[in-house]
């Protein structure tokens, strides 16, 4: 508790006494301590056997593309799905037996999360929700490289609005699903905390033209700056940083690393 918070608490209790009220419990507005995004320092991450992310996203989904506050720092271009597991719905990701149903996905430029201080040209957020309302966002870094075939229909027709049919959301994901997991918040107002974050370690690629197609609508960027960890711990099932580069050369690297564990 900071000195200012303690001072405020004492002031609140003193005021309550002055007003003749009973001693109140020290109840304050929820402290803003667990915000997103963060800089993920891989050497500080705690290695754990995380419950795996089991993705069953829609492969034939109807996706409604909508521009939101183009040019604004809190804007984006969003692909909304019908939440559910029907043939044209968005599907779900399951963690530890809990289903988080995909609601929408959207993009930021540059990336909101950093990995060891490195910022990527873009970041994809897949926003999922459990039956109890808990939000779980999967973050995927995007680097410049080969054109992204899975996202071609999305980025060839920006900014929308338009409807994509037969869209394969599952195909957007990278092949390696090791991640960095932590408790954070929404990165746009109202910055609500209690959001579970899983930032995938392996980036996906988009061509320079695809990245430019998005960036042209957000010339000032639409990424929130990194927030302090405030004692939070980032958990990971990604092998030690020295081995990390191997993961990105392809599946062969993953096989070798898994055998060593
Ligand atoms: Zn986002």
Walkthrough of the structure:
17% of the residues lie in helices and 33% in strands. With 261 residues, the protein is of the alpha+beta class. The protein is built from 5 helices and 15 strands. It has one domain (32-260): Alpha carbonic anhydrase (Carbonic Anhydrase II), CATH 3.10.200. It has helices spanning 3-18, 152-155, 208-215, 241-247, 251-260, and strands at residues 39-40, 46-47, 53-57, 61-68, 76-81, 91-95, 98-108, 114-115, 122-129, 135-144, 162-167, 179-185, 193-200, 204-206, 235-236. The chain binds zinc ion.
Keywords:
Carbonic Anhydrase II, binds zinc ion, disordered N terminus, 5 helices, disordered C terminus, 13-stranded mixed β-sheet, alpha+beta, 33% strand
Number-wise, the strands total 15
Hetero groups: zinc ion
Number of helices: 5
Q: What is the share of helical residues?
A: 10-25%
How confident overall, as mean pLDDT?
86
Mind summarizing the main beta sheet? 13 strands, mixed
Whole-angstrom Rg: 21 Å
* Coarse shape: globular
Number of structural domains:
1
- Write the element-wise H/E pattern from the N-terminal end onward: HEEEEEEEEEEHEEEEHEHH
Q: Which CATH class is shown?
A: Alpha Beta
Distance between the termini: 40 Å
- CATH-scheme architecture: Roll
